[in-house]
Write a structure and sequence with these properties.
Keywords: Oxidoreductase. The chain is of the alpha/beta class and about 260 residues long. The chain has helices at about 25-35, 50-60, 75-90, 115-140, 165-185, 200-210, 215-220, 230-240, and strands spanning about 1-5, 10, 15-20, 40-45, 65-70, 95-100, 145-150, 190-195, 250-255. The protein is built from eight helices and nine strands. Strand 1 (about 1-5) and strand 2 form a beta hairpin. The structure holds NADP nicotinamide-adenine-dinucleotide phosphate (NAP). NADP nicotinamide-adenine-dinucleotide phosphate binds near residues 124 and 198.
């Protein structure tokens, strides 16, 4: 970030109103801090409002603009209300990082994946993004367009025997991302996805607790030999939401240290 004078920060996202789901921890929390530091006004959504309030206070302390909104991705009404809150706060929306997601409650194989697990994966990791994108696009159109980034996963790209429902819903999300990009391009709305590989967040720690050794196996299979940090993933989302990516739409961008190559 550069400064034109002491008080006006000029960053990659200056002047933009950005909505971030799954902002209470992990990649979303890193994105909240990054995007705010790059000049965006951020609206942070998740169920854990205490964590969101802490982040909002930190960002405001650093001179940024941030607000929190409670939202449950399994509840369509809650998602629409959260986007309505953005409209109420700012009257516009320039970018959305649809990043919230949940890992499977139990690991595979697919034969034993429970109905509840499949239903949660469908609602939280797929349907939520459809509902959110439609609301976000409607608000973006009022000011001539915007940009959307959906967090998919390297698990969308190939068979995922330990996480069959997760992988399937993330692949479905890639399809929706591409369709939205083509549908809304004439309206000035760009839509892209990112496919993180193993990323050092609580989601991976929780998976490690269920499947000891999964992080070491992930690192061994990764050309860079380690997980990405949450910030490294957020950086790519920030680029895709910025004007620097003005010709990028319908892309599903790997952020996986080469693990999918
Ligand atoms: N970490 C990895 O290795 C990895 C790899 C590939 C893809 N990803 C994807 O990256 C995204 C972020 O993952 P992460 O690693 O940062 O995970 P995380 O640390 O578990 O954070 C997940 C976020 O999603 C929110 N969330 C989960 N269920 C929700 C619900 N029903 N309603 C609203 N918010 C909900 C959580 O907030 P609340 O609990 O407060 O609601 C939290 O903020 C996810 O889409 C994940 O699938 C992660």
């Amino acid at each position: 970030m550069t400064h034109t004078n002491e008080s006006i920060p000029v960053g990659m996202l200056t002047g933009k109103v950005l909505f971030i789901t799954g902002a209470s921890r992990g990649i979303g929390a890193a994105a909240a801090q990054l995007f705010a530091s790059q000049g965006a006004s951020v609206v942070l959504a998740a169920r854990n409002t205490a964590a969101l309030d802490t982040l909002v206070a930190q960002i405001r302390d650093e001179g940024g603009t941030a607000d929190a909104v409670a939202m449950d991705l399994s509840d369509r009404t809650s998602i629409r209300a959260a986007v309505d809150r953005v409209e109420h706060l700012h009257g516009r929306l320039d970018g959305a990082f649809n990043n919230g997601g949940v890992n499977q409650q139990d690991v595979g194989p697919l034969d034993t994946t429970s109905d509840d697990d499949i239903d949660e994966q469908f609602a939280v990791n797929f349907r939520s993004h459809w509902v959110a994108m439609v609301s976000e696009a409607a608000l973006m159109r009022r000011t001539g367009g915007g940009a959307i980034v959906n967090t998919s996963s390297i698990g969308s790209r190939r068979a995922v025997p330990p996480l069959p429902a997760y992988g399937a819903m993330k692949r479905a999300l890639n399809s929706l991302t591409e369709t939205a990009a083509v549908t809304w391009a004439p309206q000035g709305i760009r839509v892209n996805g990112i496919t993180p590989g193993g990323t050092a967040t609580e989601m991976m720690e929780e998976w490690e607790a269920k499947t000891p050794g999964i992080i070491a196996a992930n690192n061994a299979a990764s050309p860079i030999g380690r997980m990405a940090t949450a910030l490294e993933v957020a950086e790519v989302a920030g680029f895709l939401l910025s004007n620097r990516a003005s010709a990028v739409t319908g892309a599903i961008v790997p952020v996986d240290g080469g693990a999918g190559a």
